[in-house]
Design a protein that fits this description.
mainly alpha, 180 residues, single chain, 3% strand
Length: 180
């Protein structure tokens, strides 16, 4: 199997691992009264991310895109960095991390790990990976199309998530609910 196909399949396997973690974490959150926000855009997000993986393979092998080592290895490094950032986010949020927008009312915002640096570091990982993964092997059309489709979706997602976090946060000065 060509190395680029292996890389894309490894990213796909990582996505499946994320979904398993998300399913477990969703159950944890729902047992604690979580409220879900943004249900309507979730299927679009799943479809777009699936199309990214398919587009990488279709464009590279269908259009015969060459691997250019200097650029390709740089993009591979960005893909690896994006995965590391994503898993730092997942471990920092613990059972509160999810692919859906689930907020347990009363829990304080997480401000450790990458969240001490920015409010939504996982979306930085998504943006970097969405451009870098196709560009590892010159799939510039896929990188452009994903980015163009992802930016408005990401704007919707960020508005949804910010509103959800603001609605679920404890009032200023209130004691945070204990998390077992």
């Amino acid at each position: 199997m060509p190395p680029y196909a292996v890389l894309v399949l490894l990213v796909a396997a990582e996505r499946l691992a994320e979904l398993a973690v998300a399913r477990r974490n969703a159950a944890w959150s729902r047992r604690r009264g979580a409220v879900e926000y943004g249900r309507g855009h979730y299927p679009v997000m799943v479809a777009l991310h699936t199309a990214l993986l398919a587009g990488c393979l279709i464009e590279v092998y269908g259009a015969g895109r060459p691997f250019r080592p200097g650029f390709g290895w740089t993009m591979t490094g960005l893909v690896v960095a994006a995965q590391a950032l994503r898993w730092w986010c997942i471990t920092s949020l613990g059972p509160r991390w999810n692919t859906r927008v689930l907020v347990v009312p009363g829990l304080p915002l997480v401000t450790s790990g990458p969240y001490r640096l920015m409010r939504h570091p996982n979306y930085l990982a998504v943006v970097v990976e969405g451009a870098a993964l196709p560009l590892v092997h010159g799939a510039w059309i896929t990188a452009l199309c994903f980015t163009a489709a992802n930016l408005p979706l990401l704007a919707v997602r960020l508005r949804c998530e910010n509103a959800a976090l603001d609605a679920g946060a404890p009032p200023p000065g209130a004691a945070a609910a204990a998390v077992p």
